[in-house]
Amino acid sequence: MARRWTNDLTLADATPEAAFWNRRQIMAGLAGSGLAAALGTSVQAEEALDPNTWEEVTNYCNFYEFGTGKGDPSAYADRMTTRPWSVTIDGLVDRPGDYSFEQILGEMTLEERIYRFRCVEAWSMVVPWQGFELADLLNMAGVQGGAKYVSFETLYRPSEMPGTAYKVLDWPYREGLRLDEAMHPLTMMATGIFGKPLPNQNGAPLRLVVPWKYGFKSIKSVVRVTLTDQEPPTSWNMANRREYGFYSNVNPDVSHPRWSQASERRIGGGLFAKRQPTLMFNGYGKEVASLYEGMDLARHF
Ligand SMILES: Nc1nc2c(c(=O)[nH]1)N[C@H]1C(S)=C(S)[C@@H](COP(=O)(O)O)O[C@H]1N2
Ligand SMILES: [Mo]
Known about the structure:
This protein is of the alpha+beta class. It has one domain: Oxidoreductase, molybdopterin-binding domain (Sulfite Oxidase, Chain A, domain 2, Alpha-Beta Complex), CATH 3.90.420. Helix content is 22%, strand content 22%. It contains ten helices and twelve strands. Strands 3, 4, 7, 8, 9, 11 and 12 form a seven-stranded mixed beta sheet that branches. It is globular. Bound molecules: the ligand Nc1nc2c(c(=O)[nH]1)N[C@H]1C(S)=C(S)[C@@H](COP(=O)(O)O)O[C@H]1N2 and molybdenum atom. Molybdenum atom (MO) is lined by residues 62, 119-121, 215-216.
């Protein structure tokens, strides 16, 4: 990839002393992208990238393999064995195989990125991730010319995953991206949060993070990555295709059939918690809108 995305925030910026400088950076970015007007006031923009706390990020989770409650993953995910771990990379690649987690880490450049994270259930967080670009992993395996999509699978190990006893989803959990979305420099494979290895409930030892899409696209505890020439089936789309489309880009103008996506509730914040407007592409429009030029995003939701 010729173009590498550069982070506007680092973990160090999340410290109180750096907060003022950090917010200036954010505002500059928003003004440049024309999002400041869409946001309405600068106060909302400032709040938008203030990271959540470790407690919020690790205790309010979605990981249905451990149960459907927000507290189930933190209660049960420590049952999951994450060593040894390997990722099978197969399909339309030059070097298919089982890559151990250690081998992958050895090949990748880790960096820190603070991203907005927006769940389809209309809550949001801001998380400081560590990880590498998915493009680097795909290039390691060598993407072949005919590849058009990437599909992902989560570990399916019922003995360690109490939630899989229930057929809420068709296990293993599956997700997919179009190849250009997968190769985009914003798309990362995270291995840590807040400078520490990923806790199991957040998808140890490695999970996808696609910041401009609803949270369910960011599949956890990945064991398989397959390059294909067909749009792959995905768990939420299979469960309910009217409610969960393949693209699932954050879009305030397209409501979920059962609720509005126009605003979101920021997790945490206590007394000052309030709803804020949902941003098109979760605020990453400047970087990703061009991927969808000419597409009807109400149809391809
Ligand atoms: N394997 C797997 N990945 C998953 C999920 C899941 O249930 N299983 N939930 C998704 C949803 S709906 C969201 S919002 C995010 C939550 O990530 P977090 O708990 O780290 O905030 O993980 C996504 N990845
Ligand atoms: Mo979600």
